[in-house]
Amino acid sequence: MKKLAKFFLIFFVIVGFNIPKPVGYVNDYAGVIDPEIKNEITLLAEKLAQSNLAELAILVVESTNGVDDFEYAQSVFDNWKIGKKGIDNGVLIFVAIKERKIRIHTGYGIESIITDGVAGEIIDNYMIPYFRQSKFGEGILNGALAIAKRLDKEGKLSNVNPKKIAKKTNSSKQDFIIFIFALIIILNVILSRFIRGGRGRYYGGGGYFGGFGGFGGGGFGGFGGGSSGGGGAGRSW
Fold first, then answer.
1. How far, in Å, CA of 76 to CA of 232, rounded?
2. Which domain holds residue 76?
3. Residue 49, Cα to own-chain centre: how many angstroms?
4. What is the number of structural domains in the chain?
5. Is residue 10 situated within a structural domain?
6. How far apart are CA 218 and CA 143, in angstroms?
7. In a domain? residue 74
8. Distance CA 73, CA 88 (A)
């Protein structure tokens, strides 16, 4: 009985949520992407489409409202039909702010290039460092650039250079390490003087220290009928 109740709960949660309608390549329903960055992502998506490399869609929501992020992204992909029919070259970057979830969801035709492992690396190295600083737009743009660079094997695109940024260092931890090193040095000096003073020799041991360029716009006319088998990767930040 409990399993049956759980099944119906999951069923109604999944069926009950409303899939947002695409209004363009960038669909920011959480209001976290600045207009300038949105324009850059849109221009990149247009160039990808014009070059027949991919159809890129961005969806940012405030919350999944209890729906699993994979199921949410898959439902959106199926509903929007991202990618060209028969080629299935769609890519969805999905972000849920409240749940702190990021997913890169790929169409069948993209899976061999943006593998699950590659998708995870892009999120880890190019998106999460920005997200942890609440720079969501920058992180999404950087992830989109990393995807575009991976797809553009023939060099059709220009100025597609994603950036890795250094992860923020825990200053408290860093200060503690510096304090320990300083304490070791002081103790070493005191001990060496004590040994020299008591025995006339020093028995000290070894060391202790072992932009993106402009693209011509072509407008958004909807996606082309692509499909996905659930390829890609997801992360929390």
1. 14
2. 2-165+229-236
3. 21
4. 1
5. yes
6. 22
7. yes
8. 16
**Residue 207 is inside which H or E element, if any?**
none
Crossing angle between the packed helical segments 35-50 and 136-151, to the nearest 10 degrees = 10
- CA atoms of 203 and 190, how far apart (whole Å): 13
Helices marked H in 87-226: 116-122, 128-131, 136-151, 171-199
Model-wide pTM > 0.85: no
| 177 within a domain of the structure (yes/no) | no
Query: Could you tell me if 80 and 223 are in contact, meaning their C-beta atoms sit under 8 angstroms apart?
Result: yes
Does 196 map to a domain?
Answer: no
| Residues whose CB is less than 8 angstroms from the CB of residue 129 and which lie 6 or more positions away in sequence, other chains included | 139, 164, 165, 166, 167, 168
Sheet containing strand 101-106, edge to edge, reads 26-28, 55-61, 90-96, 101-106, 231-236
Q: Which range, of 144-148, 176-180, 228-232, averages the lowest pLDDT?
A: 176-180
Report, in angstroms and rounded to the nearest whole number, the Rg of the chain calculated over CA atoms.
25
Q: Which two tokens stand for residue 84?
A: 């060209």
Q: Which of 6-10, 52-56, 125-129 has the lowest mean pLDDT?
A: 6-10
Task: State how beta strands 101-106 and 55-61 pair.
Answer: unpaired
Question: Which H helix or E strand runs over 8?
Answer: helix 2-16
State the average pLDDT over residues 196-218: 40
Report the pLDDT value the prediction gives residue 8, as an integer from 0 to 100.
Answer: 40
Handedness of CA 199, 200, 201, 203 (dihedral sign): positive
Residues 6+ apart with CB under 8 A from 31: none
Pairing verdict, β 101-106 and 90-96: antiparallel
Longest Cα–Cα distance of the chain, Å, equals 87
| Residue 162: strand, helix, or coil | coil
